[in-house]
Each structure stands twice: as structure tokens, then as C-alpha cells.
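anyone seen this seq b4? input:
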Amino acid sequence: MGQKWIIDVIADLRDFAERNGLPLLANQLEVTASVAQTEIATRLDGAAPTAHLAHAQQLPPFKNTG
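predicted toks r here
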């Protein structure tokens, strides 16, 4: 299963927020997804978290890969 499931859960929550008129929550969940992706990548490759943080801040908006 790995850790991709958490990214999918966040994407589902973001989609729900967008569909139900909760734009601030949707935006926060987008940020949350970027943080999750960064931390997972850090765990997987053993790099210092700061090495991935700069990259995460440049990521395009998170989209559900369904």
C-alpha cells in the first residue's frame, strides 16, 4: 500500500471542499498535500527535509490523480 493513500485521501477531501463551496478549506488542503508529498519524499530518500521544502513551494497546485 505504501504511503500514497494519504495523498489520495487529501485529494478526496479537497475535491469535496471545492464541490461544497469551501474554497479556504480546499486551498488549505492543497497546501497540506504539498507538505505530505514533501515529507513522504524525504522519508523515502533520506534527504534533509529542507532540501525538499524549497521544491514543494514551487510545485503546481495539487490535483487528484484518481
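The chain has one domain: 4-57. Helices lie at 4-19, 23-45, 49-57. kinda curious what u guys think
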